[in-house]
Amino acid sequence: MTLANSPEQSVSSAELPDGSDQSIESFVRSHTGWMLSLAKRILRDDSDAEDAVQTAFANIFKNLQAFDGRSTAKTWMHRIVVNQALMTLRKRRPQSEEEIDELLPVFDANGCRIEDDWANPETPEGLLQRTQTRSHVARLIDALPDSHRIVLILRDIEELSTADVAEQLNITEANVKVRLHRARAALKKLLEPLMRGDAL
Amino acid sequence: MITRRKKVMRRIHGAMFKLPLMITCEAFEDFILAYLDGELKGKQKFIFEMHLGVCRECRDYLRAYKSSMELTKATLTNSENALPETVPEDLVQAVLAARGQV
Fold first, then answer.
1. Which of A25, A59, A148, A176 fits as disulfide partner to A183, beta carbons 3.0 to 4.6 Å?
2. A·B CB contacts under 8 A
3. Of A54, A128, A177, which is closest to B33 when you measure between CB atoms?
4. Within 10 A of B55 (CB to CB), how many other CB atoms are there?
């Protein structure tokens, strides 16, 4: 499994703190950055993300002795942060799940796609050279319902496997695939004005 | 607005997609994820790519779908959403202070 946005792609169990104050402080300073980024991506709120990281660290320290080394320490810690962020997310008021339907592809009675012509679409490379593009895209990603946005983040950004995402969200692998495709399709629709050169 | 030419083309496509080894755009949609994950093999891959070859709408759609994925990845891995430049000191201190209290 590859984990995004981490300076260390893996943490060996030897790098886990040995219990001394110095090793614990060093451990916290080394890992707070990527853990906070991950929590922010899921929660979209700085304060909630900091709370999630703090609780995740507490859970890591509490379960340090029980870490069995069957996965890398980084994978184990990543899972704890995701679980904590998801717990926070579940406490929020659920969003309507219907709003994504109108963003999905449309077909006629013969099963043929109804798609506007793409004359000269802008390339991702060209769009990313503009300073406003990333903040615009980030706002549109945030517009997706959480149930779909989280699957997109865990699969396409954090690069977890379908099986790992299914386990963490407690849904089937088939459901992960359906949500991922619907999230990508909806996002493509939301990004169309930008990619067609009609936005920014 | 749907032009008359597009309506005619869709009717032709609709008839064509009923031929052996052809699928509709709606069926094509169901295989996009597996295709991009490299999970389509043999006949399934052949049928998917044959549709891609004859259907401009699905070619354009898939290109935009992939561009959208690229923009998403670039946005969330190279922005303020990525690693913060500095780790918040108050958070580090809060974590250290709370150690062992759960």
1. A148
2. 167
3. A177
4. 23
Q: What's the DSSP call for residue B25? A: H
Which residue of A57, A135, A141 is in closest CB contact with B72? A141
Structure tokens at A118: 């793409």
- Report how far residue B26's alpha carbon sits from residue B65's, in angstroms, rounded to the nearest whole number: 15
For residue A190, give the 3-state DSSP assignment: helix
**Residues in contact with A74: Cβ distance below 8 Å, sequence separation at least 6, in sequence order:** A3, A6, A8, A9, A10, A11
Predicted confidence (pLDDT) per residue in A81-109, tens digit: 999 999 999 888 666 565 789 999 999 99
* Record: contact B91-A115, CB cut-off 8 A: no
**DSSP for A48-106, written as a single string:** HHHHHHHHHHHHHHHHGGG--SSS-HHHHHHHHHHHHHHHHHHHSPPPPSGGGGGGS--
Determine whether the interchain pair A133/B75 forms a contact, defined as Cβ–Cβ distance below 8 Å. yes
Residues of chain B numbered 71-100 and touching chain A (CB < 8 Å): 71-79, 81-84, 87-88, 91-92, 94-96, 98-100
List, as ranges, residues 75-114 from A with C-beta within 8 Å of B.
105, 107-114
Kindly state the tokens that stand for A184: 């990508």
Partners of residue B88 in chain A, C-beta under 8 Å: 32, 36, 50
Q: Which of A180, A172, A3 is nearest to A79 (CA)?
A: A3
Question: Which ipTM did the prediction report?
Answer: 0.84
Give all domains of chain A, ordered by start, each with its CATH number: 13-91 (1.10.1740.10), 98-195 (1.10.10.10)
